[in-house]
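A quick aside before the break. I want you to see a complete sequence-to-structure record at least once, exactly as it would be stored in a machine-readable document. Don't worry about memorizing anything.
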Amino acid sequence: MKTAIATTTFSKEMDVRARFALATVNKAAALGLSVIVVDGGSCEELRNGLVERGAILYSEKERGMGPSRRQAMQAAWNIVSPLGSVLWMEPEKWPLISQVFLIETAMKETGADIVVPMRKSMTSYPPIQEAAERLGNMYFAKATGHELDVWIGPRLIGPNAMEFFLNYKGEYGDKWDSIFIPIVRAIAYGMKVVGVEVNYVHPPEQTAAEEADPGMDLKRLVQLDNLVPAIYTEARKLGLPK
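That is the input. The structure line, written in tokens, reads:
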């Protein structure tokens, strides 16, 4: 199985997230993994750095979180189809790169269509983010019947499940829902979705930066407020949990 990584960037300066995006590409390239990046208009230093480290860089065709993520997934799928897999992940999660082959092995051994990494611990996160993501995961389990760490962000998507992500129309705002609602639909339509435990620790530098910014706490709560009703509505519409 061949796996390509799909991600997106948008940083006007070389902040923590931008530096970590470079680390992600660097570590992936060292492991022979293709990284497709769709960029929404970042500074030249980041864009040039991504290419220098081996990323395949595209400019965003359509503004917005959902469209840019689907563009990245489609470009990654073009590389690995028809039998490969696409790992969607946020660009700053460079510590997860060392776990990619573990995630890929879980897909092979279980025959899963989607594999969601599961954190052993969330204590490295800012307290409000940890609380919000624990609550979100609890609600997802109740609404769908599947206990998964969906709030981690990354998901490994196999060939049978790609259509759920690529064909999503953004019915619930087309932001964070772009990588959540496709999983709800995949479960409802009989796809095998499993979790695999990974040893992921949030980078301390990022935790410190986010703890110092009240806007990041607000973002976590807004995300929860957006996703919980969307998950509820979609799960009920599709008859979950079964």
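Two observations worth writing down. The mean pLDDT is 97. The two ends are 31 Å apart (CA to CA). We'll return to this after the break.
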